[in-house]
Specification:
Layout (H helix, E strand, L loop, with lengths): L3 H25 L4 H4 L2 E5 L2 H11 L3 E5 L14 H5 L6 E4 L11 H4 L4 E4 L22 H18 L4 H25 L7 E6 L3 H7 L2 E7 L8 H14 L3 E4 L6 H9 L3 E4 L12 H19 L2
Parallel strand pairs: 1-2, 1-3, 3-4, 5-6, 5-7, 7-8
Helix pairs in contact: 3-6, 3-7, 6-7, 7-11
């Protein structure tokens, strides 16, 4: 028979593990409105998270779902992440295949809804008829998203409607100012062709008057065919392109090998941010504009 002290020690250790687990999940769980006095919402990707926290201000608690550095095209929920969203009432999402995994929240979080932020935005379609979901990479669309988030917060929390409207207007002014500044930065690049890693940058190019001459991957995670690579080589020669843009969230080894074989340099465009130097939507867009400017200057005429 085991000594009583040993049995008691095992029971104490087990109890400690249970207590730690309870405290852990309590700490990770999104606080409820009753606990914080704030409206609790979430956003699927970092740019939406930043817009929502700018509109919500001190009256909203905003949770980010997709970790910085991860790709929304490859994301899967963990039980821990779902537990952390238990008190969230609304999840702001992009939709159209980019973050459709957000719908899982409604199956496990009572009363939660997923709201697409596309209202009032003209969406473009790919050649296969599907919708291009990267619409947040256009300042005009960002302003519309800001309005949609404000409207949703007002519906959930009408007591602070005035604060949400004021925050949204102030943030939209910042978006207008930054767009004007970055258009000046990219003015010399008007009409110049660029090659991107995957087809995420058409809205950005439209906003700044750039030309997407081609993409390496037909869509995120889809390997290019030999035929498409041959066509891309022809585009490089025809347009005299010397720079291709990769994305930090996606594996780019094959592209870098292709670029080396075709004597093309590599620069970076980031659609999501959330990392040092890109901790706001405004910083993210400034990073991308400056990356294009520097790359095209290096490419030369």
């Amino acid at each position: 028979m085991k000594p009583l002290s040993l049995i008691l020690g095992v029971l104490a250790a087990a109890a400690l593990i249970v207590v730690i687990g309870i405290l852990y999940f309590k700490a990770e769980k999104a606080p409820s409105r009753e606990e914080t006095g704030k409206t609790v919402v979430a956003a699927t990707i970092y740019p939406l998270y930043d817009m929502a926290r700018n509109v919500g201000g001190e009256n909203a608690e905003v949770k980010l779902i997709l970790p910085p550095g991860a790709s929304p095209h490859l994301f899967e929920f963990s039980p821990r992440q779902l537990e952390a969203l238990q008190n969230v009432k609304t999840v702001f999402a992009i939709g159209h295949g980019l973050d459709d995994w957000a719908t899982q929240i409604t199956n496990v979080v009572k009363g939660a809804r997923v709201m697409l932020v596309e209202q009032g935005i003209t969406l473009r379609t790919f050649e296969d008829g599907t919708t291009d979901p990267h619409y947040w990479l256009h300042f005009g669309n960002a302003r519309r998203i800001t309005e949609n988030i404000a409207k949703a917060l007002i519906e959930m929390d009408p007591a602070h409607a005035g604060a949400y409207r004021a925050s949204a207007e102030a943030y939209k002014e910042k978006l207008v100012e930054k767009e004007r500044e970055l258009k000046d930065v990219l003015a010399p690049a008007q009409g110049q062709p660029i090659l991107t890693f995957h087809d995420a940058w058409f809205y950005f190019a439209e906003d700044f008057g750039l030309k997407i001459a081609g993409t390496f991957e037909p869509s995120a995670g889809e390997e290019p065919t030999p035929r498409s690579l041959a066509a891309l080589q022809q585009t490089i020669e025809k347009e005299q392109i010397r720079i291709m843009f990769i994305e930090p969230q996606l594996s780019s080894g094959v592209l870098e090998s292709f670029a080396k074989d075709n004597h093309v340099g590599v620069a970076e465009l980031d659609p999501l941010g959330g990392v040092k130097g890109r901790t706001t939507y405004l910083e993210l867009m400034a990073f991308n504009a400056d990356s294009v400017r520097r790359a095209l200057q290096k490419q030369g005429p």
